[in-house]
Amino acid sequence: MIRATMAVTGNRGRDLGTPIDRNLALELVRVTEGAAMAAARYMGRNQKEAADQAAVDSMRRSLGFVDMDGLVVIGEGEKDEAPMLYIGERVGNGSPPEVDVAVDPIDGTRLVARGLPGGIATVALAERGSMYQTHIPYMEKLIVGPEAAPVIDITDTVANNLRRIARAEDRSVGDLTVVVLDRDRHTDLLEEIRSAGARVKLIMDGDVAAGLMAAMEHRTGIDVLMGIGGAPEAVLAACGIKCIGGGMQARLWLRNGDRATMESERKREDVVLDLDDLVAGDNVFFAATGITDGELLQGVRFLGDDRCHTQSLVMRSYSGTTRYIEAEHSFAKLRRRRGEAEHAFAGAETVL
Fold this sequence. Notes:
The chain is α+β, with helices and mostly antiparallel strands and 352 residues long. The chain has helices spanning 24-40, 48-63, 77-80, 109-114, 158-168, 187-196, 207-215, 217-220, 231-244, 258-264, 275-278, 331-351, and strands spanning 2-6, 69-75, 90-91, 98-107, 120-127, 138-144, 177-181, 199-203, 224-230, 247-252, 273-274, 284-290, 301-302, 307-316, 321-330. α5 (158-168) packs across α6.
């Protein structure tokens, strides 16, 4: 089953030229489905690296068959020393278009390893040179839905932001729900949110999904994301928000030792990054598939030895289309087709 909705994004961003003439997100969903199915076999087994490796291997293999000349510019593994698609890796079959690729084979690896809700596999693409790049692992983020997008200011106080967000959405602060990563560094932030009167939803991991939920407040009941999370997740979330509409601001957050990296990259921690800074232009594609059941997507459900069910979210910024795709997969046919494709690919290499 496919359900599609159309969104008006408001700010078209910096147009980088003629839109890519096909919806690459519909090809990417096969990549995230494969990664999700591979990782789901490890759900609840407390084998974090094995789950990550399975998702990475599946994603790398599937990306190789997509018609694109892709360059990985955002990879999750660098931050947590996990198995990874590394920054600078070329993916796709080398055909046009040239694109930047942001990947997180498992957003929420601990969630999958412990059998907790909210783990997803996700990939985003945009035109070459359009995605923000940094080796600094963390960013402070503020994400809201379309109605509140014009009023946020990450440099202002938590209370002032929440009051403006509530006013923009014609609600009281007490009606708002703010999602925050459950980390010691957020002790003061949580006190400020609660003192302002808003409700808090704490999450263990998975701030790509959480960012999307904050931008889809009427669907998810989450109104705001606040706090410090991964920089790779910030860019991935920005890609999704660029597609569905919403507002986002971020700025670098430095740990001990990160200042030298920032200076070598000629960046500044006080610079506020908006959506167009994190991903420029309006040719952005985003796909995610649920691994474990969550508020954004259902997880992989195995229907016996030979079949499973997946639910995915597929988005394209140029058209503003959001699709929810539910699929059933036959493992026997997938194995056979994959073997045929890999055999043909190896034969082509031999001829060349």
